[in-house]
Automatic annotation (TrEMBL):
Coiled coil segments of this chain: none
GO biological process terms held by the UniProt record: response to oxidative stress
Name of encoding gene: ohrB_1
SUPFAM superfamilies: OsmC-like (SSF82784)
Family membership: Belongs to the OsmC/Ohr family.
InterPro entries tied to this protein: KH_dom-like_a/b, OHR, OsmC/Ohr_fam, OsmC/Ohrsf
Name of this protein: General stress protein 17o
Domain of life: Bacteria
Cited Gene3D superfamilies: 2.20.25.10, 3.30.300.20
Amino acid sequence: MSYSTKATTSGGRNGRAVLDNGGLALAMALPKEIGGNGEGHNPEQLFALGWSACFGQAILVLAKKHGLDGQAAKVTCDVTLNINDGAFSLAAELKVALPGADKAKLQALIEDAHTICPYSKATKGNVPVKLTAV
């Protein structure tokens, strides 16, 4: 089984992004921190949303294996856009909170989830990622 989706953007970071099925259309804008007006969304926000949801699913799939109930897990994905001498790069931190969970078990679950999450696989070796149990 596989799944595919498509989005089209015009105007770059100050344009409009639309899913092919019309289910979502967003105004895009440079963040204020890098000279934009911030009156829209940016690729880093969308990446953080997607990665946190995808990673949350990996947590759900693997939680029982680690003796945890992943239903109450909350995943936060912090994405940073670094700009150094005109070169751009990303960094990320995935933080997982699971009330009542043993921190060592939760950390092991997070590290395991990082091996199966498609976003984690896609960024492996390209984006520095910190994995944190909170």
